[in-house]
Amino acid sequence: MYDVPSEGPSDGGRKESSVPLLVQRADNTQIDHQLRAKGVDPAWLPQLPSNDLSDPHQADMFSVWLQMAKMAPGVIVVIARSEQQTFDYGSPVGVGPAVTNSTPDVITREIGGEVTVGTTKSFSVSSTVEADLFSVVKVSVTASYSQEWRKDQTFKDYLSIPIQPGYTCWLQRETVMRRITGGDFIVVTPGPGVHRYSGTINGPGLAGTLQDRIEVISRRINASQLASVTEQLGTKSTDGVLEFPAAIAAML
């Protein structure tokens, strides 16, 4: 969806809603079947203490389990089991360059470019097991929600627009992000021993009729701020037209 203002400034800001755009409950039938096959009754899980992965010590321990599971499949099992996933817009991200029109006439320029939106999480695991972690998440999302999980996604957004004299314009993207909530990573060792770790994960993803928002931001930026940008970046205007990163324009 593109919102193209014909003239005038826009603050480009949006207030995050406390109510998510969409909530999907997990269907853990397949996940629970795997747990039972390892001698674990899913009904017991809420009674287990949950180790918070935002604690660096717990994150390190979880990294060890992931490493061991990779080296000894069948002996140690790591399964992700969630209650629900919610969808909402991520923080606005500038796409491509901002264009400033310092001429006395309306100009037409193509704005936009490529931007990569990645997965974020509330914890940090060692780099050696990062891929294994996302493999576990991907399997879980496929099983519980019948959807694909991508670690990151690159978007290409371009739009040709008129820019009024004295205005700076750029393209801004708000990507729909899904958040795994009530999420647990279950580690099963022989015995069976059962360890429960909790942490949240966010990543780009659409569902239903949800769409990402692409908006043209049009704003007057004063001459002293533009001069500071050109000095710091070493950029120069061409025939009264200046281009610089949209992320910087958003901060002015």
Description:
This protein has five helices and 16 strands. A five-stranded mixed sheet has the order 1-15-10-6-16. A five-stranded antiparallel sheet has the order 2-5-11-14-8, with no helix packed on it. It has a four-stranded mixed sheet with strand order 3-13-12-4, with helices on both faces. It starts with a strand and ends with a helix. The N terminus is likely disordered.
What are the defining features of this structure?
single chain, 252 residues, alpha+beta, 5-stranded mixed sheet, 5-stranded antiparallel sheet, 16 strands
Oligomer: single chain
Number of helices: 5
What's the number of extended β-strand segments?
Answer: 16
Q: Reading side by side through the largest sheet, how are the strands ordered?
A: 1-15-10-6-16
Overall 3D shape:
elongated
- Structure classification: alpha+beta
Q: What gap, in angstroms, lies between the N and C termini?
A: 25 Å
The portion of residues forming beta strands comes to: 35-45%
Radius of gyration: 23 Å
Write down the overall mean pLDDT: 89
Query: What does the main sheet amount to?
Result: 5 strands, mixed
| Model regions low in confidence, pLDDT < 50 over at least 5 residues | 1-16
State the helical fraction.
10-25%
The secondary-structure element order is: EEHEHEEEEEHEEEEEEEHEH
